[in-house]
Specification:
Elements: H1 24-28, E1 37-42, H2 51-68, H3 71-75, E2 78-84, H4 91-106, E3 113-117, H5 121-130, E4 131-136, H6 145-152, E5 156-160, H7 165-168, E6 176-178, H8 182-186
Length: 187
């Protein structure tokens, strides 16, 4: 009788080291307002992870904030944190980082995006604690543990409507599933 056994999250990874500082401004390298809206993309620096979708969607979201006239949205600090595995010995990691930073500059949002590479588990937990919404952009990804871990940490999760997230996210209940289109994600 076939059945599916889903991976579990290791609860030990949700315990920070006793000596960890835990200062989000220090982690991000800039002052972060207490009411800041932090969006996070947590993936390896690989093209197949579609991180550019998060950057383009974020730029559309910021433009919408500027034109909406919604004073609360305009006054809040909005940041996108692109974090994940990065190895200087892997050409794709290095090249893709350059491509993503160039994309941010072309969209005029480079000052609102923070690129973090190979963060520690403590830093990942701190980031997820402060994240308003996790943008999980890989298409046709295998199960993908990141959305499950983010939901465990209380993050809203937006993911592509294919692959593993179809099994771990119930649209409009435990998160949001959308086609990988920046105009849809940015609204």
């Amino acid at each position: 009788m076939p059945s599916v056994l889903y991976p579990v999250i290791n609860m030990k990874t949700f315990v920070k080291s006793k000596d960890f500082d835990g200062d989000i401004s220090k982690l991000l390298g800039r002052e972060v307002a207490p009411d800041a809206k932090i969006f996070t993309s947590l993936n390896r620096y690989e093209r197949k992870k579609n991180i550019g979708l998060a950057i383009e969607s974020f730029a559309i979201f910021l433009a919408k904030c500027m034109t909406s006239g919604n004073r609360e949205l305009l006054m809040r600090q909005h940041l996108l944190v692109v974090a994940g595995g990065w190895d200087p010995r892997v050409a794709e990691n290095v090249e893709h980082d350059i491509e993503l930073q160039k994309q941010a500059m072309q969209l005029g949002v480079q000052d609102k995006i923070i690129f973090l590479k190979s963060i520690s588990n403590d830093q990942r937990l701190l980031l997820l604690e402060k994240t308003e919404m996790l943008l999980y952009t890989p298409e046709n990804e295998h199960f993908g543990i990141v959305p499950v871990e983010a939901m465990h940490m209380g993050c809203i999760v937006m993911a592509c409507d294919s692959g593993g997230p179809l099994e771990s996210i119930v649209h409009n209940v435990t998160g949001f599933l959308f086609t990988p289109n920046a105009n849809i994600w940015g609204n």
